[in-house]
């Protein structure tokens, strides 16, 4: 039966399907998504269940009969299939025989290959064993040969030692050759370290090395004593071959550096040093040592400091020169490292740092410089300088001077003679001295840069706190002795209103005894002294102190770090400027309150026109001319004229004028409201209109007109201080509230 890939339809399989009902489509049973339940539900719409059951059974019967027909159609061919297959086994045997022959041949070839491979592996193994044995034999022969050669060379060296000084160069050259052979012997011995022969030679190898090191040291000492550079270099190359740098460094230190340093230190101790010049004396001593070392072994040092040179394993600067210098200073001049006298310690430290800088200047490459700085002698030398104790002593000295200056200021005593910067208070002059000391080149040390920066910030913060406490006391005293009912709330002096300090600052001291309580009794104009001093100190921080700090830090720090450090000083200076502004605002409040006290006399206008026959006003009240007299008095005082610059004076005038105008507006508005309420009450009682003067104006109109004339005169008073009333919002509000056009006639 032919097989096809094309699908067979129900119509092709069953033939005529017209005998089934129209609603029964046999093709539906072949759909991939066929579902019996859904099909039954769909067909129930066309026929009852019984009819549907019968029709489906008929369809099943047709399918079964068709299946039998299909099977019977090709059954004859299927049965006769076995009779057609004749001599199948013969065909199979004929096909199998060549394959079996090929298999036998492949097995024979495989066995032959295995035999050859085994023979080849055995040959390679024998060759490897022979090669290993030959290598071991060559190694042993090489060891024996090198050992014999080293022994003979050492005998030659021993013989040459008796020939005299003239053969020092040849002997050192021979020692360099021996060192190369000993290094070669050690290398070969390390290759065969597990061999019994090599283990037996360890004692001989160690003996050869010990003899060579002894003779190298003796020859190097002799070469250094005679300043024979050629012989010394041969010895150093010998140490390089051995990989030993320590013995050569110790020899140079003991033969050259130690006698030189001991002699110069002894001469230094004989010279009398004047008090205060210890740093100069130490600087001269170290300079002499540096010159002497460079003169006696300068070429040798240069040879060892060549970048990528064969002698770069030596660190003569650190392990020979610096080690001996710091040991000699510690034993012979221990007072050099003592921080008990800060000026002497500072000078000595700078001298020592200068000496180390000169040693670093001899380094010809980064690797040599790193080797010097990482040496034990370098670290030990700088550990001897107790910088923490030095700073603690300075801190106590500067902080004590600052606290003494603040606590000693018990009144408004001016500096005598006058300060060069124009500072008025002795406390401010003390702050200036402390700030300058902290960045003085005679005090500042670069390794302590962060601590000195913190000290600067603490000095500023302490001064700021001192002034702030005095101002707070003045504000509290004014609130207790002169309460202002219904007035605007006065300025609250806090760290926020005065300008917060730098985050992380700590005051040098917060001793309440240093609080300037006397500031609460000063006249208002004397507050200009504090405004002036705060402004000067702020400018000093932003200019001279900041420049000095930047110059000191640039020696070791990059520009970005210096800018960041100076930025903290700028922030601290801004806090002082904010405090000066707060004091100026306080001056404005006090002057304004005095001016408002004069303006309050406007309440007498009511008595002038109430229930009287007085005519309408034609000129301003007498009190108006003195409304701003307190401001004029303060500005004309000697303190303000000499200490307050024009911008600050103008700011004070504007602040006072604004406050007085606002309070004037409030008082005038309250007065007008009271007068109108009183007049309305009288009208209701008399059941008549208000009393009218000869010109027809009521009392309230007269009072309002008087207030308007007074406000105009007040504006004229403002112009005398250089102000333009039309530009003052507070004054315009006052004038608008008392204008006749705003009153109800």
Explain how this protein is built:
With 745 residues, the chain is mainly alpha-helical. It has five domains: 10-83; 137-240; 245-385; 393-586, no CATH class; 597-742, no CATH class. Helix content is 70%, strand content 0%. It is built from 26 helices and no strands. The radius of gyration is 56 Å and the shape is flat. The chain starts with 9 loop residues before the first helix and ends in a 7-residue tail after the last helix.
Features:
COG2; membrane; single chain; 5 domains; mainly alpha; 26 helices; golgi apparatus; protein transport; 745 residues
Number of domains: 5
- Provide the low-confidence segments as ranges: 1-5, 483-507, 688-695
Overall shape: flat
Quaternary structure of the protein? single chain
Structural class: mainly alpha
Helical amount = 55-70%
Radius of gyration: 56 Å
The helix/strand series, from N terminus to C terminus, equals HHHHHHHHHHHHHHHHHHHHHHHHHH
What is the strand tally?
0
> Number of DSSP helices?
26
- What gap, in angstroms, lies between the N and C termini? 128 Å
Amount of beta strand: under 5%
Largest sheet: none
Mean pLDDT: 80
Region (Disordered): 485-504
GO biological process, one term: protein transport
Domain Conserved oligomeric Golgi complex subunit 2 N-terminal: 23-93
Subcellular location: Golgi apparatus membrane
Strand and helix layout:
Layout: H1 10-14, H2 36-43, H3 49-73, H4 75-79, H5 81-84, H6 88-160, H7 168-191, H8 196-225, H9 229-242, H10 246-270, H11 278-304, H12 316-332, H13 342-361, H14 366-373, H15 376-383, H16 387-407, H17 426-438, H18 449-481, H19 527-553, H20 559-599, H21 604-609, H22 629-636, H23 638-643, H24 646-686, H25 699-719, H26 729-738
